[in-house]
Write a structure and sequence with these properties.
By secondary structure, the protein is mostly helical. It has one domain: Arc Repressor Mutant, subunit A (Orthogonal Bundle). It contains 4 helices and 2 strands; from the N terminus they run αβααβα. It is globular.
Length: 97
């Protein structure tokens, strides 16, 4: 992936406010050519000590994607006041922007 595209993705993710979420696809649409898959890949390959709120990026169905850090992601979101319904979805009012 081009460095400029990674930088765009990271800049967008850094802006997601606490207690809010966005989707891989929404982040992609704010870039100059990334796809939702590319955003997911960028989140998976964050460098150590990055400080980005990766946990605020979720799947288009407003659920946490199935990955090794899913439980940690859910815990981090819950700590920020994000509530999940019985189906594991985040309320649409929490979507950013």
């Amino acid at each position: 992936m081009r460095a400029e595209l990674l930088e765009q993705i990271y800049t967008i993710v850094a802006q997601i406010p606490q207690g809010r979420v966005t989707t891989y696809g929404r982040v992609a649409k704010m870039t100059e050519g990334a796809t939702a898959r590319m955003v997911g890949s960028a989140m998976r390959h964050l460098p150590d000590g990055h400080g980005l709120p990766w946990h605020r990026v979720i799947a288009a169905d407003r659920k946490i994607a199935d990955h090794g850090g899913a439980a940690r992601q859910r815990d981090k979101l819950c700590a920020e006041g994000v509530v999940f319904d019985a189906n594991g979805r985040v309320d649409a009012t929490r979507l950013w922007p």
